[in-house]
Design a protein that fits this description.
Elements (H helix, E strand, L loop, with lengths): L8 H26 L1 H6 L3 H12 L1 H17 L6 H15 L5 H15 L32 E4 L6 H10 L10 H15 L10 E5 L3 E3 L2 E10 L2 E11 L8 E3 L3 E2 H8 L14 H11 L5 H7 L3 H17 L6 E2 L8 E5 L5 E6 L11 H13 L10 E9 L5 H10 L4 E4 L8 E11 L2 E2 H11 L4 H23 L2 E2 L8 E3 L5 E3 L6 E2 L4 E2 L8 H5 L11 E2 L4 H5 L3 H11 L5 H12 L15 H4 L3
Helix pairs in contact: 1-4, 1-5, 1-6, 4-6, 7-8, 11-12, 15-16, 16-19
């Protein structure tokens, strides 16, 4: 029971110190996000990438700072539980009129769980559910920007409105020809609205902050006409053909599917300056209603809030389902033990305690690989992961086969007990990763073979998968990533048919690899040898040897060689490595390059 009176002098001080810690965190987070505008204007791509990596570490640093202060000033871990009950009540009071209450609640949970023992996780000492609503929050200070701007074009004035939308962002770098580019956007919008009567409420609503990622900035908004709402986004890029590096609107994206690709879980996080993040999330959900709020928070760089919402969604799903966790179907990995819940669209991955001899690695090295992916530009080709520790599941929801599998391969990560003292056994996993579930590419292709490639639709699906597999590898190469193990089973197919890589225990930076040709045999004995007779260093890669492992099926081999034979040539890999080492940052577009205005309007 919560106390009826707040009589602890320490409780308010602890709550205020925690709020100070969160406010410092979000102030620094916003400042780094706001600086993305200058880095974009000055084309400082390496600094942009570095900032994206470093910003991910901000949260944990601020949590540690706050814990240190609370221990130093209040001996927080030695305070009795009735004081902690009062701390939460004081903190709720401090959330009133706060512009980021949901993030502040998550920060409170993070700090509290560092200080208190895990047995207090599920009671009244943390925010299991939100205590403060995030609806209709706005910053009412006179100089504050609104969450979004609404534009009401007069008849025949839509082009001028589009010009004003871009100009209102105040970019300090000129465009090559903004009137030309907005003309292209206008033509695309008119085509989209062809034969549509413009209603009295016809307007464009545009989020006030630009979304920065890698070498692009994105205008995000929606067209409203009567009951019709059409999401859109305008990518702004530096024109690679312009000697002065002036800006262009590269294309226009329309509809939920285009926006889903832009905000994909397989891409790096955006940098966008938000006073009220929940208002941004609410606006974005109106554009992408199928996208979970957790993934939108992740896409905005607010990964801890994404984890909080994901876990709440997961607990809600557990409560309203009855199926059991099982060993995930497919070929078992040598490093990861993977299980899933059939009714839940995610997989759970646990690092095994030991690995076959050919896997020369450690738990720490594997965790470092996953952290590399978290911090790196995933270019739409590497699945984001949520990392959790000490996760408790109901024992009755686990199959006995799965328990036996964990006991056999990852016993150090398993505890079965009644930690909470409620009389129910729990399966507690010490450390795991959670990823979106995809169809493993090897299973996807095998289903096509089983159905029969004489079916034109099935053959087209197979060809698309093989072509996109090669495109996925090339996108990873452009991002300075060598996937290591390129077997089909390590790639998955998303619900949109996109091929994504998800097995990270062997990835390396491309620039750390040594790409070699297989030496010419010096004699007949070497030529006939079934063993590797030449020396191989720890970072040596021989692209011409990929074929026998990947192209055993004749139909797959024909499609692959027609589109991606260069992946078997050492020159392809070496040239990309040299360009990256020279400082070049490749463009990887979150849309079909054929949709770029420079291609559509080449004449």
């Amino acid at each position: 029971m919560f106390p009826q009176r707040l009589d602890s002098p320490q409780a308010y001080g602890i709550a205020k110190a925690m709020m100070d810690g969160f406010n410092r965190h979000y102030r620094l987070f916003r400042a780094e996000s706001a600086r993305a505008k200058h880095r974009f204007e000055t084309a400082d791509w390496h600094a942009q990438q570095r900032a994206q990596r470093e910003r991910i570490e901000f949260y944990d640093l601020r949590v540690r700072e706050c814990v240190h202060r609370l221990e130093k000033e209040f001996h927080a871990s030695r305070q009795p539980m009735d004081v902690w009950q009062q701390v939460k009540l004081h903190y709720i009071g401090l959330l009133v009129n706060h512009h980021q209450p949901e993030l502040a609640e998550t920060f409170f949970n993070s700090v509290t769980c560092k200080i208190l023992h895990r047995t207090h996780f599920h009671n009244d000492f943390i925010f299991v559910r939100p205590a403060v609503s995030t609806e209709y929050i706005e910053n009412d200070e006179p100089e504050a920007l609104p969450t979004y701007r609404a534009y009401y074009p007069a008849p025949g004035q839509l082009h001028d409105t589009l010009l004003r939308i871009i100009e209102d962002f105040g970019l300090q770098r000129p465009f090559v020809d903004l009137r030309r580019d907005t003309g292209y956007v206008l033509a695309a919008m008119q085509q989209r609205l062809a034969n549509v009567t413009l209603r009295a409420n016809f307007q464009l609503q545009v989020l006030s902050g630009l979304f920065y990622r890698n070498k692009g900035a994105y205008v995000v908004g929606k067209i409203i006409n009567g009951y019709l709402e059409i999401p859109f986004a305008l990518p702004l890029l530096h024109d690679e053909r312009d000697a002065a590096g002036r800006l262009v609107i590269d294309t226009v994206l329309f509809g939920e599917d285009d926006l889903q690709m832009l905000f994909s879980f397989a891409r790096a996080y955006f940098m966008v300056d938000m006073e009220v993040p929940s208002a941004y999330v609410q606006f974005l959900r109106s554009l992408m209603p199928r996208k979970p709020r957790a993934e939108i928070y992740n896409a905005l760089g607010l990964a801890k809030q994404g984890k909080t919402l994901f876990y709440r969604d997961f607990l809600y799903h557990l409560k309203h389902s009855s199926d059991k966790f099982r060993i995930a179907p497919g070929i078992k990995g040598m490093v990861m033990l993977v299980f899933d819940l059939p009714s839940f669209p995610y997989v759970f991955k646990v690092i095994k305690d030991y690995y076959p001899p050919q896997k020369d690695t450690t738990r720490e090295q594997i965790k470092a690989k996953y952290q590399l992916v978290k911090q790196h530009d995933r270019v739409g080709r590497m699945a984001d992961t949520l990392e959790y520790s000490e996760v408790a599941f109901p024992r009755e929801r686990f199959t006995d086969e799965l328990i036996a599998e964990i006991e056999r391969f990852a016993p150090s990560q398993l505890e079965i007990s009644d930690r909470d003292g409620d009389g129910r056994q729990e399966v507690i996993i010490k450390h795991l990763y959670i990823e979106r579930r995809m169809i493993p590419l090897n299973i996807y292709l095998q289903e096509a073979f089983d159905t029969g490639l004489q079916d034109a639709r099935v053959r087209q699906q197979m060809e698309h998968a093989v072509i996109d597999y090669g495109n996925a590898i090339k996108d990873l190469v452009a991002a300075n990533i060598f996937p290591g193990d390129m077997l089909w089973k390590n790639f998955g197919v998303t619900r949109n048919g996109k091929v994504v890589f998800y097995d990270y225990d062997e990835i390396e930076y491309l620039t750390d690899c040594n790409f070699r040709r297989v030496p010419t045999p010096r004699n007949e004995e070497e030529e006939m040898s079934g063993e590797v007779w030449y020396s191989v260093g720890p970072h040596d890669v021989f692209p011409e040897t990929f074929g026998p492992f990947l192209l055993g099926n004749d139909a797959v081999r024909e499609v692959f060689l027609r589109h991606h034979a260069d992946l078997l040539d050492v020159a392809f890999w070496q040239s990309h490595k040299e360009r990256i080492q020279a400082g070049h940052v490749y463009d990887v577009f979150p849309y079909d390059p054929e949709r770029r205005f420079c291609h559509l309007h080449a004449a």
